[in-house]
Design goal:
Number of domains: 3
Distance between the termini: 35 Å
Number of helices: 11
CATH topology of the largest domain: Rossmann fold
Structural class: alpha+beta
Strand content: 15-25%
CATH class of the largest domain: Alpha Beta
Radius of gyration: 28 Å
CATH architecture of the largest domain: 3-Layer(aba) Sandwich
Number of strands: 25
Largest sheet: 9 strands, mixed
Length: about 525
């Protein structure tokens, strides 16, 4: 506690992270999609756009992932986990042999075919290798190289342990360097053999990526923009970046050999996409503390089609549909200055921004979208009303107020209890906090003293949430209740080694209490939601 010396009135903000029961973050987003390079399927944590580029590469025509992640961080996103999707059986790692040294790219993909290797030879010895990457950056490798199969070279191309591997065979009892060269000196050249493995993508590959997210408990939001079809348009020619090491009179490297064909993923049918979105929402529901952001309809779908798209999805409070697509600046100039993309990455960034500024209890709506130029399909007031009534959240251009997200409904259609995104996410966050923080009570003596301690901890936690404005009500009694006593723990429960704590919370909307029952057993904490009712 701060120490005050001057008489007066002081205001202190109570931080929920310091509570005995802390409130976990709910904005950490898992993206599954198509990337230029990087590890396949295994999620990798990134906390900035530059980290994403250094690990997974830049924008590419066959995928929306890079555009979505850029929009995520531009709109306030802080942490993302990326799962790169490809057909493992069809991916290839670019490689090349230069004298006795074998160079291979650090991850599969056609990106490695743009790596140019130039040996520096003095007499019969390799003095160094100059590696020129597709983006114009360069790296010198000097002997001794690693005498192992595919070791990793640190800090190459701006990151560690990912981008380039070197190996060579060492004869017995022979020092690895200097390397004696054959009669024919090694020639500079590009690596070859890298393939993206996109042409044979199937829905199962995305399902595998969703399953991998289960290994990262901290993920609170999931999105997969690359489920949607892409125009098969190649980037316009761009002048290669200037090399920092080219001196006057020194010839730059020749252009890389032309690709036989840029791999594009197959276009999934509407039914396949909806099945995958259903699976993503189901993943969020099974994981209990996650929320799925779904893109509603294709690039050219009108509002009526978006409503039919939403109706084809099963009712779920763990997912929401957003419409329409958006235009973003396109460095590749595929169809001009802008490219139409699904909005899920930008929406995830708004979730994170809203959580940071206000809290998970605030509806992530009436927020300005950044890093876009326009919406793909304008929506008027009448269309907006129809979309909203059918639980489709709309992105609209508001005159004088920018482009804003104007909707916060889930695709739950059963009743009002879980209709709103903020209600679902708030309840999930509360339940996750209770499960994580009450595990220490397992195997404690099951008696009234334990019940009182549980009541005190949970009540204190909910009181802080009420004080912060995260629960609705004029008084604490209006906002929540906690029951953990002989009434909730009769002999029929205690004889089974169970402790039951029932709590009700009033989320920030006019509805009845949502009842959460916490059961403590020898196996851990179990949380169950029930229909809303008055305490």
């Amino acid at each position: 506690m701060p120490v005050y010396h001057t008489p007066g009135v002081y205001f202190e903000r109570r931080d929920v992270s310091s509570l005995a029961i802390g409130l976990p973050r709910a904005d950490i987003t898992g993206f599954a999609g198509i990337a230029m390079r990087g590890p396949l399927f295994d999620p990798v944590k990134v906390e900035s756009w530059n980290q994403f580029v250094s690990t997974f590469g830049d924008f590419m025509a066959p995928g929306y992932l890079a555009y979505a992640v850029y929009g995520f961080f531009a709109n306030g996103g802080r942490t993302a986990w990326i799962s790169r999707v490809a057909d493992r059986t069809k991916t290839g790692v670019a490689s090349g042999s230069f004298g006795s040294v074998m160079i291979s790219a650090g991850s599969p993909g056609a990106w490695g075919n743009g790596i140019y290797v130039e040996p520096f030879v003095s007499g019969s010895q390799i003095q160094a290798l100059l590696i020129r990457f597709p983006d114009g950056s360069e790296q010198f490798l000097r002997p001794p190289f690693q005498p192992t199969i595919n070791p990793t070279v640190e800090n190459l191309y701006g990151i560690a342990q990912r981008d380039i591997d070197t190996s060579f065979s060492v004869p017995p009892l022979v020092e690895p360097f200097p390397v004696d060269l054959p009669t024919t000196l090694p020639q500079p050249g590009y690596l070859s053999g890298g393939t993206d493995g996109l042409a044979s993508l199937t829905p199962q590959h995305f399902l595998d990526a969703f399953d991998k997210f289960a290994q990262v408990p901290e993920i609170g939001i999931v999105a997969a923009p690359d489920l949607m079809p892409k125009l098969r348009v190649l980037p316009r020619f761009k002048k290669p970046p200037a090399s920092c090491c080219v001196q006057p009179g020194v010839m730059p490297p020749p252009p890389p050999p032309p690709l036989t064909e840029t791999e594009f993923p197959p276009d999934f049918s509407q039914g396949q996409i909806q099945d995958l979105q259903t699976a993503l929402a189901g993943h969020a529901e099974v994981m209990r503390y996650r929320f799925a952001i779904l893109d509603g309809g294709g690039e050219r779908d009108n509002p009526d089609s978006a409503i039919l798209w939403r109706k084809a999805l099963p009712s779920s409070s763990f997912a929401a549909v957003y419409y329409p697509w958006i235009y973003v600046d396109d460095p590749l100039r595929l169809t001009g200055l802008v490219r139409a993309i699904p909005a899920s990455g930008h929406i995830a960034g708004i979730f994170s921004r809203s959580d940071l500024r206000k809290g998970v209890h605030k509806p992530p709506m009436n927020e300005v979208l950044e890093a876009l130029s326009d919406v793909r399909i304008p929506v008027d007031d009448t269309q907006h009303g129809l979309l909203n009534d059918d639980n489709v959240n709309v992105i609209r251009t508001m005159p004088g107020r920018g482009i804003r997200l104007m909707g916060a409904r889930t695709i739950w259609v059963e009743d009002i209890l879980f209709r709103y995104v903020n209600v679902r996410r708030l309840l999930s966050t509360i339940e996750k906090a209770l499960e994580q923080s009450l595990n220490w009570l397992v195997f404690e003596s099951n008696n009234p003293h334990l019940w009182t301690e549980i009541d005190r901890l949970v009540r204190n936690f909910l009181e802080i949430l009420f004080t912060l404005g995260m629960l609705e009500g004029a008084t604490s009694e209006d906002a929540y209740y906690v029951h953990c006593d002989a009434t909730t723990n009769p002999p029929s429960e205690t004889d089974l080694g169970r402790v039951i704590c029932e709590l009700g919370v009033q989320p920030p909307y006019p509805a009845e209490f949502v009842v959460v029952t916490i059961g403590l057993t020898k196996d851990g904490v179990q949380v169950r939601e029930e229909s809303g009712r008055n305490a």
